[in-house]
Amino acid sequence: MTSTDDEDLAELRRLADGGDSDAVAQLIELAGERGDMEELRRLAALGHRDAADELVQLATEQEDLAELRRLAAAGNRDAADVLTELDESAG
């Protein structure tokens, strides 16, 4: 990532933190494309449901059971459903 990209990302974060829903959506999309679970966690913790959905999808694609368990333990129903499906297919 170049410094311009870093600057653009910082500006998106600033806008998102200020309540700009378009910036939030862009951040979620970019984080998903980059596989940036940390960014998705941060946004999900702020209450952005789309970030949580993207985090579940990314964790599922990466077969990150620890992340899925963390999400399920925090009450994410989608993560719990994925874990149930994985358990059923393994057994």
What does this structure look like?
The protein has 91 residues and is mostly helical. The protein has one domain (3-90). The chain is 81% helix and 0% strand. It has helices at residues 3-17, 21-34, 37-45, 49-61, 65-73, 77-90. α1 (3-17) crosses α2, α2 (21-34) runs antiparallel to α3 and α4 (49-61) packs antiparallel against α5. The longest helix has 15 residues, at 3-17. The termini are far apart.
Topology:
Blueprint: H1 3-17, H2 21-34, H3 37-45, H4 49-61, H5 65-73, H6 77-90
Oligomeric description of these chains: single chain
Percent strand? under 5%
What's the order of the H and E elements?
HHHHHH
| Extended strand count | 0
Number of domains: 1
**Structural class designation:** mainly alpha
Silhouette: elongated
Number of discrete helical segments? 6
What gyration radius follows from the Cα positions, in whole Å?
14 Å
Instruction: Give the N-to-C terminal Cα separation.
Output: 42 Å
Residues in helices, as a percent range: over 70%
Mean pLDDT, as a whole number?
Answer: 93
Q: Which residue ranges are poorly predicted, with pLDDT under 50 across at least 5 consecutive positions?
A: none
* Main sheet specs: none
